[in-house]
Amino acid sequence: MSSVRETSIEELAAALPSAAAVVIDVRELHELGGGRIPGALAIPRGELEARITAAAPDRARPIVLYCASGPRSLRAAATLETLGYHDVCSLRGGFKAWTKANLPIDGVSGGLTAAQRDRYSRHILLPEVGEDGQRKLLASKVLCVGAGGLGSPASLYLAAAGVGTLGLVDDDVVDASNLQRQVVHATDRLGVPKVESAARTLTGLNPDVTVVPHKTRLTSENALEIVARYDVVVDGADNFATRYLLNDVALRLDKPIVHASVFRFEGQLTVFPADGAPCYRCLFPEPPPPGAAPSCQEAGVLGVLPGVLGVLQATEALKLLLGMPTIAGRLLIWDATRSRFRELMLRRDPKCPTCGEGVDRAAIPLVDYVAFCGGA
What we know:
The chain is α/β, with parallel strands linked by helices. The protein is built from 15 helices and 13 strands. The protein has helices at 9-15, 48-55, 71-82, 94-100, 114-119, 121-124, 130-138, 151-161, 194-205, 223-227, 240-253, 280-283, 296-299, 305-322, 369-372; strands at 5-7, 22-25, 41-42, 63-66, 88-91, 141-145, 165-169, 210-214, 232-235, 257-263, 266-272, 330-335, 340-345. The termini are far apart. The relative contact order is 0.10.
């Protein structure tokens, strides 16, 4: 350990803006409640050897390690030198010296309990999430339209991720034929409203989550009031009327939609961003003729297919909440028979009646969507 070079807090503070070095916090997760040095990756000492290649693939790039006061990061630096890293140093005095000098810190837990830091520890380790991102998720509100095949996996993973409020819209009850794919429900809940069944599962999975059941069908009369309460909409609807309604309401309210649909062995996924470029009507200007697009009840669906698409929806919703890039502007198509993804580029239609040039989105009319879709 005597050969390991040490750097001072002043030297590190001066070097941080250039981001030339990889800064790694080797403290344990329960020690991170007081924050960490800006830009630092959190990799506990016991996981460093397993994760260093992904964190620092270039072995010539400078690495600065720190712990609470110095000894652990000295030992960790010596280990990295044996692994072939050429420019490794330890922060003299560690995080205690950094905070004593009143230097800036990131990720102060600000209300995360010890239990929450343990539950979401794998999120906290991600630089793209961290404690700040997890607090953002806990403060977020997502509306899942449909508690069926797509809404089941999407809501399960959003709840597990710690999205603080989940709204569920569905007016149906649990039927035995649902259980082949609607994994948020159970056999002992046949005949129970889906929103109540789902709420029981989701709160049992994560008590941090507040589930708001909306035992109703979205209509032109109630959609604006319901959707306005949420940050992101996950579209798990099984009919065209609801999808067109959601599109128009979301554009009026500047809300993003994570859209998916499934049919037999194929599924589709995209994000319609809050700025509406493009929107659902750009993709489908007109609904199909009645009977041209049969429902799962009529045509069948492979049970696991909604699981794949629902999990992808949850992924895109989390990225929206965290401010990360999404699949907006692209349509992902999953062919389960060939185990193949295809991707199509989507373009905004400048003549689109709801997001086109010169359209006043606040004045988009909410029509009789069942009639508009011809009963489809």
